[in-house]
Amino acid sequence: MTALRKTAVLSMDVEDWYHLDYFGRGQCNENISMLDGVERYLGILAQEHVPSSFFVLGELAGRVARLLNGQPDVGAHGWSHRRPLTMSVDEFAQDALRTRRELEDRLGREVVGYRAPCFSMDRKRLDRLQELGYNYDSSRIDFAGHPLYGTLDMSGFDVARPWIYQRQSFLEFEISSLACGRRRFPVAGGGYLRLLPWPLMRFLLTRYLRQETFYVLYIHPFELSTRPDPPLPTGTPRATRVRFSRGRHAVAQRLRTLIAILRKHGFTFSTFASVRQELLSQQAPESVI
Ligand SMILES: [Zn+2]
In angstroms, what is the span from residue 13 Cα to ligand 1's centroid? Predict the structure, then answer.
């Protein structure tokens, strides 16, 4: 087997602060938006000359379509950030289809990628996604310590390359995490970029990049917003307030540093859609029908 090219995919889940699962949606002032973080992220991508994948909520499609017009890989993140595992399989399918249609209307092109809100995904729902015509998903994360994340059984899929599962031409991209003894640490999330002390994040990331050839980052607009924290619903626990706002001021710089570290370790930048195309084009046609 030839050596795998080291590939990094940066991705943004385009949602607003009030979509976060730890706030009661009805208690948030939705007139306050932190979607300016999308523009800031696009500015960083342009300055650094790196691409990104995006997963957009259906109900925000109209607000961000113009911004994302030139972006090569825009997928769906559900209609309003309801967790798929809290919906019936049929409700989930309706949500995923409605989101896709809205995005396709607004963007004027095909939408075939999906990421579940809170990585809330299981095999039944993944199979439905494929039936609906989606051709890739990025909702698998191996981090049992988080109460909201689903578990995704990949039996029947082949490992196309580490972290990427394949069944026919449908791909599942796993979110990066690092095994340390019996524990697993996510090294992929904007939250960890903000909340972990930078020397620790850097240590975990470097360790990951030395042993792996595929890396995924996911980040959110509120993490890059330059606006002040919105008034959080009364009764929001202190720990949640800290989790929401800590480190936001440092994220842009950390993202630039992360990109530099990835480059230093020989990683090149791509999107999920491009990685999929590249993988399929390397395979014999009969194996992907
Ligand atoms: Zn989300």
Answer: 5
> From ligand 1's centre to the CA of 281, what distance in Å?
31
Q: Which residues of 65-92 are buried (b: 16+ CB within 10 A; e: fewer)?
A: beebeebebbbbbbbbbbbbbebeeeeb
> Cα of 139 to ligand 1 centre, how many Å?
10
Does 234 score more than 90 pLDDT?
no
Distance 283 CA to ligand 1 centre (A): 32
Is this structure's pTM higher than 0.90? yes
Cβ 247 vs Cβ 224: under 8 Å: no
Q: Which residues have CB less than 5 Å away from ligand 1 (the ion)?
A: 13, 15, 117
- Going from the Cα of 212 to the center of ligand 1, the distance in angstroms, rounded, reads 25
CATH code of the domain covering residue 13: 3.20.20.370
Taking the C-alpha atoms of residue 98 and residue 92, their distance in angstroms, rounded to an integer, is 10
Nearest Cα to 138, choosing from 168, 112, 106, 103? 112
Q: How far is the CA of 131 from the centre of ligand 1 (A)?
A: 23
Paired tokens of 215: 């890396």
Q: How far is the CA of 57 from the centre of ligand 1 (A)?
A: 8
Give the number of domains in the chain: 1
The Å distance, Cα 75 to ligand 1 centre, comes to 12
Buried b (16+ CB within 10 A) or exposed e, 212-251: bbbbbbbbbbbbbbeeeebebeeebeeeeeebbbebbeeb
Residue range of the domain that includes 236: 7-287
* 2 domain residue, yes or no: no
Per-residue pLDDT, averaged over 194-217, amounts to 93
